[in-house]
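[agent] plan:
  1. take the single chain provided in the ticket
  2. run structure prediction with default settings
  3. attach structure tokens to the ticket
  4. add a short note for the reviewer (M.T.)
[agent] executing step 1
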Amino acid sequence: MEVMSDTFAAYDHANKNEQEIAQSSQCGCFSCYTTFPAADVKKWTDGTAWCPLCEAYRTVLGDKSGLLLTEEFLMAAHDHWIGPQQWLDALAVETQSIAASRSRKLPPDVRSAPKCLPWWKFW
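[agent] step 2 finished; step 3 output follows
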């Protein structure tokens, strides 16, 4: 059960982690499951790193955290904090189908659509 307690710690180490990453040589992202040199992290918001590969926020861990940066651990942290990838894929398909069914249908000839005056032309 050590992996589960470590996944709880992963979120703490992924937030306000600028100093920890500055002291690290390697980093891992539990959004895209990759590892990369700590020097590659260039984007920060409120002292929290963005992944330089997938641009996820609050998912970057430095090796100074003491957590394993293996793909297995990064996947476990992803499932714990973000959700299992299969669930996310299914949710994306469902969301896309809802959006497609509710999308606005444009007239066949856009030029035949009624013209609207800009709001400032009414004054």
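[agent] step 4 note for reviewer: The mean pLDDT is 84.
[agent] ticket updated
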